[in-house]
Amino acid sequence: MAQKVILVDDLDHSEGTDVARREFSLLNRTFAIDLSDDNQRRLREALGLIEKVLESSREVRQASRARRPADSPVRLRGHTTTDVREWAREQGLEVPVRGRVPEEVLDRFLAAHPDAAPDREDAPERAAGASGRRARTERDEAPETA
Fold first, then answer.
1. 130 pLDDT exceeds 60?
2. Which CA distances in Å does 12 have to 26, 36, 51, 108, 130?
3. Whole-model pTM?
4. Residue 28 three-state SS
5. Which contacts of 27-31 are long-range, i.e. CB under 8 A and separated by 24 or more positions?
């Protein structure tokens, strides 16, 4: 049994012997549509106009959402947040498995581990005392030797 395929123009829904699958490119993508010869000519004209418009225009990208500046994480000298979490659990403190370590836990860890003073520009009072001055060391006071 023979079958007859009738192509219908996708724009005006007309049937005809001149309707065929037509491919065209736009914005680096390839599309296919069934069109008559007349509608194919109209599509070519429209694509020509779009090409001229695109050549004369510039792309506008959607502005990205601004990220809220998070407090910079406390950097612990010689310790990691994993160390803090383990210590906190040993002390019976609740601490999340992931994410930020609560400030209260960090404060308690620093009190118990003075060698872990944070190395953070925005918290000089923790690293060097309330005045923000660097503590003097024996090295600073030792006389230079030649």
1. no
2. 21, 9, 24, 75, 79
3. 0.41
4. coil
5. 27/54
